[in-house]
Amino acid sequence: MAKKPATKAEIIAKMADDAGIAKVQAKAALESLVAQAYKGAKSKDGFTIPGIGKLIKHRRKARKGHNPATGESIKIAAKTVLKFRVSKAATDAVVGKK
Fold it and tell me: Engineered SS bond to 26: which of 16, 34, 89, 93, CB 3.0-4.6 Å?
């Protein structure tokens, strides 16, 4: 059975323990990082978390698609999406170098 992802409370507890600070301070730091990421991702430069990756806002063009159930052609409207680009350092740390 696969291990479940850490909860927000578990992440905060681990941050507090690693940094030697109170959980309240770790929670404030995490919430600040999240708020900065949301605000930064809206900008044209995106938001970079050093060693992890970058959040960027990307505009998708309108395109043609098809309904898999009927095979009918449909138009997919243009929309803005959020992308996360993983840094090379994170990839090397998790996957390993080739």
Answer: 16
